[in-house]
Amino acid sequence: MDELDQLVERAQHEFARAPTPAELENAKARFLGKSGRVTELLKALASMPADEKKSRGAAINRTKERIEAALYDRRRSLAQAELDAQLRAEALDVTLPGRRRGEGGLHPVTLTIERIEAIFRSMGFDVADGPEIETDWMSFTALNNPENHPARSMQDTFYVDMKDEEGRWLNLRPHTSPMQVRYARAHARRYAGVEPMPEIRVIAPGRTYRVDSDATHSPMFHQCEGLWIGENVSFKDLKVVFTDFCRAFFESDDLQLRFRPSFFPFTEPSAEIDIAFASGPLKGRWLEISGAGQVHPSVVRNFGLDPERHIGFAFGMGPDRLAMLRYGIDDLRLFFDGDLRFLSQFN
Ligand code: DAH
Question: Global pTM?
Answer without folding.
Answer: 0.73
